[in-house]
Every structure is written in structure tokens, then in C-alpha cells.
Amino acid sequence: MYRENYIHSLQTELIDMVEHKLTPVALKYKYSEVPLESTIKWRPVVLILGNYSSGKSTLINEYVGGDIQDTGQAPTDDSFTVITYDNREEGGDIRVTEEHDGRYLLNDPEYPFEKLKKYGRRFASHFRLKKVNSPFLKELAIIDTPGMLDSVTERDRGYNYQEVIGDLAKIADLILVLFDPHKAGTVQETYVALRETLPASTFEERILFVLNRIDECESMTDLLQVYGTLCWNLSQMTGRKDIPQIHLTYSSSAARESEKTDYLKYLQNQREELKHTIQKAPDFRLDHLATFVENHSENLDHFLETLLSYKKKMLSFDIKFGLFSLGISLILSSLTIFIMMISGVLGGMPLEALIISASCLAGIVFVLLQTMVKTFFKSRFHKKLMRFFDQLTSLDNQRRRDNWDAIKKLSREFLEKQTWRFSISRVKKEYDDVHQVATDGVREIREALNELTEIREERFGFSVPNEKTDYMG
Ligand SMILES: Nc1nc2c(ncn2[C@@H]2O[C@H](COP(=O)(O)OP(=O)(O)O)[C@@H](O)[C@H]2O)c(=O)[nH]1
Ligand SMILES: [Mg+2]
Q1: Which of the listed residues 110, 284, 395, 432 has the most CB atoms within 10 Å of its CB?
Q2: Hey, what's the torsion of the CAs at 103, 109, 112, 113, to 10 degrees?
Q3: How many A from CA of 179 to the centre of ligand 2?
Q4: What average pLDDT does the structure give for the chain?
Q5: Domain boundaries defined on the chain
Q6: Residues flanking ligand 1, CB < 6 Å
Q7: Are 102 and 125 a contacting pair, CB within 8 Å?
């Protein structure tokens, strides 16, 4: 119980940090359209992706223990369904206790889907919520998705399927990508959608590749062949030689168990393991949150740092131009008076009057330089900074380069619109706050996560003999 409490308080702390330190800045500078915490404050989310009839819905039904989702060989279901827990009717038959349409789901701030409103009405009509009284859902929610189809039908969906998948993947703590033995490798599109939207650092931690329906293999040899094909396809897609772990499973309610599928008995532990990993979604959530804070605070930190660097360059321009104007105006006025004196134009003007006229002249020249002339040169200097935009920041490591990719456009747009007319002291204050989260805050989070691992190790010794009891306890 101690561990669960620890997880909960850590989560609250993290969300608090995002809400109070990062969101105000993110909204102000349009880094995000919705409060940052809106996508992470809900329950842990498991997203299920894969081809149609790879067995997504059947597997979900098996896990929750009831006929919640429609299943069938043809593309049966073209909706995204969020399946979450309803504790009011626990104990009875597992069933859908409450159902809502997309409009409800997209507009209720309790849910993290506000951002998906932008996909319009067609998407809203293919999005829904089901509350189910299944104990499996106590700590997590599942999102069932329509399968990938070929690209022609894809265009008829009326919303951008890949982008929706990308946004859901950002919300999800765990993503299952399902294959079946018949189409072991046609998930290129899903893969591209994920690759393009998930930050590289979290990509591998959060995705589980699953070969489902393994009961349909003719024999162990056949299974190994399918497995090999899948490995090959995955490595082609990822462009990597090392293959991620592929989990094996099937749904016993749909399976045709026979003598031929005798090998399945050796794979029961694989099925259990997968189920158990899914139930650990709250742990993944914590890592996800930590990475979320890390990424966004670093991005915002880099963004504000760029504004400051620009503004500092502008201030130094101001100072230099100020000194230049002062020098020029003094020289010019003394020179004029001197020439007038020796040419005799001034006659016998008293010395005081001479000094006063010289100062007035100097003043006028100075004001002229500091207004019209300066605006002209300052604009040119601004344009030069914009032209060599990358020089506003140092890009000495990959991490900084990644952050820069994420915020370069935003900072550019801001500076093009505002030019130098923003307050450096305000930006400095925001930068200090965000920088503290990006450095001290992130370090504390990582320390807390380590402590959490230690709590587990202290309770069970280093070998963690039974993780299941650990999770449940
Ligand atoms: N033999 C077998 N059939 C399965 C398995 N999982 C699903 N099916 C069948 O495959 C078809 C498609 O399943 P469904 O869950 O609707 O796939 P989805 O489109 O990915 O949601 C259905 O007829 C299921 O009965 C499995 O593990 N083994
Ligand atoms: Mg389905």
C-alpha cells in the first residue's frame, strides 16, 4: 500500500508542477493550445493498435472478462472506443454500464481528449466512451481502435487517421501493436504514425509488439516461421538490426485448440506475462509523466532562452548605438560651432550662449539618431538575427538539437511578430521558473523514481520473485 500511496503522491506532485509552472508559459506563447496537464491528468491509458481483425477487440473482451466490443472477421468496427472503469456495479456480470458519444468525450474536461476536437465532426462520430464494471480496469483505461485499412479507404474516413493515432499515442502510457499470423508485417502506417509523433526517447519504452492469434499456426514450426517473418518486417520498418521483444498471445475464447496446437501449452506463461505487463500501466504512467515533464520543460526552457538571447543581443545593440549617437552628436555639434566661430558667423557671442547652442545642437542630433536612424538600423539588425537564427542558441549536443527542432518555428514566429518589443524582465522571470523545473525538478523526479524501485527491492529482495503480488499488494 505504501508503494501505491507513493505513486499517487508523486503523480499529484508532477501534475501540479506542470499545471503551475509549465502550462501558464505554454499557453501564453502558444506552445500548446490546451493546458499541458489536460492530456496526462487522467488515468493510465493503454492504446491498442493493429490491422483490422488482428484480434484487438477479442483480446480486450478477454481481458475485461465480458462481451464489451463487437468482433468479427470483416472490418466490424470503425470507431475509437475508450473503455474505462465503473465501480458502481462491481460484482455483477461484466457489462457496459454507461455509454457516451464523442461529443461528450471531447468536451468533458475530466477526460484528456480535448485536443482531439480539432479532427472535427466526422471523428467525433467515430469516438465513444464505454464504462465497464470490470476489475481489470480498476487502474487503467483501454482504447480500442479501428484497424488500419488500405490507403484508398483511408481517405474516406473524413479525418486524419494517422494524426489521431499520433495524438492518442501521446496520451497513452502503453501502446500495443498487434499482428496476426496472416498479416505479420503490414503495419507500416501505424509504425510511421508512431515514429513521427512520439519523442524518440519514449518510443521504445512505451510500445509492445504483439503477435496475436498464435493458435492459428499449424504447428510450432509454422509459428517460428511467422515469428521470423515478423522479426524481418519489423527490422525493415525500424531500420535496426536488434529486434524489439515480440510478445505472443491468443484469445482462448476464439482459439481453435486441437492436437495440432499442442505447442500452445508452452506459451501460456507468455500470455500471462503480457497481461501482467498491461496491468502495470500505472508504473508506465509514472515514467511517462517524468518524461513528459522533462521534454516539455526542456523545450520551454530552450524557447525562453532563445528569447532572452535575442533580447540581450538587441540590448547590446542599443548600448552600442547609444554610445555611437552620443559620440557623433558631440563631434558634429562641436565641429559646427567651431567652424561658425572661425568663419566669424557668430560675431561676438558670449561663451555661455555658445555652450548652450552647442548642447542644443548635440541634443537634436542625438535624438534624431536615436529615433529614426536607430529604427532603421535596428530593423536591419533584427533581420540579420532572423537570417542566422540558429546562432541565437548553442546546439552542442543532440538533446539540445532535438529541443531546438521542437521550438525553433515557435520562437521564430514569436520574434518575427513581436520583434524586440517584449519585456526582458518578464521573460527572465518565466525562464527562471521553467529552468528550475527543467533542472532541479527533473532531477528530483528521477530520484523519486529510483526510490520507488528501491521500495520494491527492499520488500522483495533484489530478485523480485513475484512481481504480481508486488503490484497487487
Ligand atoms: N483463432 C483465433 N481467432 C481469433 C483470435 N482473436 C480474434 N480472433 C477472431 O478474429 C476475428 C477478428 O477479431 P476482432 O477482435 O474483431 O479483431 P479486430 O478487428 O482487431 O478488433 C474474429 O472473428 C475473432 O473471433 C485468436 O486469438 N485466435
Ligand atoms: Mg475491433
Answers
A1: 284
A2: 20
A3: 13
A4: 86
A5: 1-41+295-473, 42-279
A6: 50, 52-58, 71-73, 76, 147, 212-213, 215-216, 250-251, 254-256
A7: yes
